[in-house]
Structures are given as C-alpha cells and as structure tokens.
Amino acid sequence: MRKMMISGVTALALLTGGIVGFGSVGSSVEAAQATTKFKDVPATHWASSAINSAVEQGYFKGYADGTFKPSSPVTKAEMASILGRLSDQPNASTQEQNNFTDIPEWAKSGVSIAIAKGFISPSNYKGKLDAQGALQRGEMATWLTQGLTVVDPEYKQAFSDVTNTVVPAKEYFTGKLASAQKNAVAVALGTGLMSVANDKTFGVDRTTTRAEVAVLIARYAAVAKTKPADFQGLNELRAVGLTGTNLSVIANSFKKTPERKIILSSNQKYDEVVNDDFSKVRNKEIVTDTNYADLKVLNWIIVDTNVASNSRSIYYPVFVDEGVKLQNDRYFSFVEFDLNIKSASMNQPQAGSLLNSATFNPLASPQSKSFLSYGAPKTGDYTLNRGVFGVTNPIYWAQGMLHFNQSVTRAVTLETKEGAIFSVIDTK
Q: Where is the SLH domain (predicted)?
C-alpha cells in the first residue's frame, strides 16, 4: 500500500496559492527559508519553513514590528480567500450562490471562488458566514473535506462511509462530537489532514492559527493528489463505519470459516446462515453461553503491534501504549459491548462468561494509559465493590486477543438470536 508522505520541501512548495498547482515545486522555497525572518518565528518553530514560504508566496504578510503572530487566529474570510487561490481545485458540479450578507468588500471575490470550488456551502448557513469571526477547527475540517469530495468522487463516498465509524478522538468517546461534524473530522483524521492534540481531543471549537493554516494548505494539496484507498487510516474508518470492524484492513488473512470447520444445528444450512460480514451481527442480540445479560457487539477493533509505525492501525494510539508488543501470533481485540443485565448483581467474571471467548471478552476494559486518556467508557465506570455492575445497561469497551497460530487458532464466531452467524478463521 502506498503511503502518503510529505517531505518538508515538498510541503513548502505546495504553499503557492494561485501561482502553481497542487504539486509543483518552486525554487522560491529555498528563497523563503533564506530571506523571510520573523522575530517570533525562530528556526526551531514547528511551522517555520511553512510560514516563511507562505509569506514569500503571498498568502500572509508579516507585521510592521517584524513579527508574524503565528498563534493568531485566522478569520473565515481570510481562509476562504486562501482556499480560493488553489488553482488545481476544480469547480463543484452543483454551484451555489454567494448569498452571504456579512462579507467585507475585499473578501467577496475570494469567498465566491471558495464556494464555486466546493469548500463552502452557503446552504449550511443562515445568510451569514460570520466572516470576521475566527475559523474553528471543526469548520476547517468541514471546508477541507468538502473540497476533497469535489476533487474525487471516491472522497464523497468515503465521507458517507464513515457515518457510523469509531472516530479516534476524545470528543467521540465522551459523546461531545456533534453528528454534523463527525464525518468531516473522521475524513480529516483518516487522511492525515488534521490530527488530535496532546490531550487527545480534535478540538472542534479551537480556533485555527496562522501557523496551522500554512501547514494545512500544503497537506490538503498532497491529499487531493492521493486516492482515498491509499490511506490505511481512512480505509479502517470506512470499514468500521460500514461493517463495525477493521478486520479486513488489519488482519485480512481472516476469511469465512469453511463448512468443514464449523458445527451447525440440524436446521441450519451453511450457505444461508454463515458469513464473514460483521455488519450482519453488529448491534444485534448475540447468543450467549450464560444468561446473566443480553449482549450486543457495537464495534470490533483489531490492532497489530508487530508492524512498522507507519503501518499501524489508526486506532493503535487510542488503545495501546507506545512500545507494547504482543507475541507474533496474536492481535489485540477491542470490543464495544452493550449489555442489558438480567441478574441483580452480575459481576465482571460473570460478564466474561457470557461468550467464553478470548476475542470477544466482556470481562474487563483496557488499562493502558492511552485508552484512559481518551476517556472511552470502561467497566470501572459502571462497577461497584468486587466488580459488581451498578447499572443495568452498561456500554463499554473491553479487551481481548485474536490468535492466528495454526496450532491453537479456532474459528472466531458470533451468532445472533435471529440466526445469522459471523465466523472467520485465519488462512495464513
């Protein structure tokens, strides 16, 4: 799989507005690095090269006191004008009119062009853009990903596919990511356009700074030249959105269990009930081994710890601490369960007995520092003394293992009360 890597020089060269297209490299990059200096942008600043190039190419200007103010927010009118200069961005097939009533004269043309290129949809607003207001990261994600859907129809499909995905950002796990922004945030993360901060939040309400814009335009240019299928992270987000699991992306050697390796009841026919489509059992009541609770599986995330860092699952930093490695014959299995407890005092070991599965194991949640920092729901949120659940309908993430050692591997199977059977086995 081809990975999208942007070197420093290439990224800088992309910050050229209407002068060149998405991928052109100009000699002005070196000139910018050599000639443009700001008192508040030392060479060690994380965006110094991008800032210098953006100024050299006319995106920004410095201030009279010799500063750039890299942390100052960018207004919506300013960002729209910058996006309008992307010469390789095609026009949207369906054109909307610039009916905003609050655009300053200097920005009207730029905003109209940004609308024509598909970045901004006036129909999503109520007549006013709040043009002089600071652009927040959630809205930035929306603008950029809407632009991608114009560049390539497959991005439009990807935007739709992630509707029901697990978004690797703290706001998602804590229920603070608005549905109107979820898809844009997912695509922005899946393509590497944007990332979470050190506190694991995407920061939808945080303002976008001048330094960030200098880098984001370069990233957008690179992503726009790349097919959606070339981003492993986006592939995972799409797979989870459509089926509930990233198994096909991370562990694609798992295939439908052959008929000879699965035991069915006399009234079940293999071709009618057995499949490898996890969506058939997602969010459905599962047949359990014990009767302490009814159980549904909402999502199933696989993480391989034995791959290079640039091939890791997009969910690795959510669930696994840096440096942790499993044996070569197993993956981490993280499952989001929805339980409806029948017993008055069901405890965690009894929860673990519901499926008696090492892979789908409701016993306990991950204890990694990474997982805890994302604020995802865990068993500890619902249990009292001695692991007894204090609520009747806990929804939480739990940790298990997925083995693929041929000597110990058995089929991984879930059966719904409706009769559908999901069953896969490793074929390596």
A: 34-97, 168-231
pLDDT value, residue 110: 95
Task: Tally Cβ neighbours within 10 Å of residue 17.
Answer: 17
| CB contact at 8 A, 87 and 20 | yes
Neighbour order of strands in the sheet with 293-303: 293-303, 330-341, 395-403
Scanning the structure block, which residue is given the tokens 């969506």?
279
Q: What is the pLDDT of residue 36?
A: 58
In the chain, what are the helix, strand and coil shares in percent, each to the nearest 5? Answer: 35, 15, 50
Q: pLDDT value at position 366? A: 98
Q: Which two tokens stand for residue 308?
A: 């290079």
Rounded CA separation 268/305 (Å): 38
Q: Which two tokens stand for residue 86?
A: 């992307």
pLDDT at 407: 62
Closest CA to 343 of 419, 379, 394, 309: 394
pLDDT of residue 50: 85
- pTM of the shown model: 0.89
Closest CA to 54 of 16, 20, 111, 11: 16
Domain boundaries, the chain: 8-239, 245-426
User: Which residues of the chain fall short of a pLDDT of 70?
Assistant: 1-36, 405-409
Which one-letter amino acid corresponds to residue 35?
T
